[in-house]
Design goal:
By secondary structure, the chain is of the alpha/beta class. It contains 3 helices and 8 strands, in the order E-H-E-E-E-H-E-H-E-E-E. The longest helix is centred in the first third of the chain and has 11 residues. Pfam families: Glyoxalase (PF00903).
């Protein structure tokens, strides 16, 4: 049995996807995530280092447009540099926001918003 300290509880976002194959291709090929588990038509799990995101198949086009998740940590500046170099189309500037977090945003093909941030002193 794994001790609780070795496997702490964590939050994992579960975002809507209009097309699981399109989500898979974007997160794998554009953002460098690995696909975890068996391929299914209605569910997807992707992981990159400690970042894990799940997706469920939705027919409602409005849901991804109002869904988001926040990814925080010291790896964020390197991710922005990598995503910029990869030419990710819907990538915002990496800037300090009024709430004193340095952030950038990525919108996936269906409109889900990924917010990446770190404290300015972590940069």
């Amino acid at each position: 049995m794994i001790s609780p300290a070795a496997d702490p509880a964590r939050a994992i976002p579960v975002l809507p996807s209009l097309d699981i194959a399109v989500s898979r291709d974007f997160y794998r090929d554009q953002l460098g995530f690995d696909v975890i588990g068996p391929e299914m038509e209605d569910y997807l799990i992707v992981r990159r280092n400690e970042m894990e995101i799940h997706f469920w198949k939705s027919e409602d086009r409005k849901l991804p447009e109002v869904s988001s998740c926040y990814i925080r940590g010291g790896e964020v500046p390197a991710l922005h540099a990598e995503f910029s170099a990869r030419g990710i189309e819907r990538l915002s500037a990496f800037t300090v926001r009024p709430w004193n977090m340095k952030e950038f945003y990525v919108w996936d093909p269906h409109g889900n918003l990924l917010k990446f941030g770190c404290a300015p002193e972590e940069v």
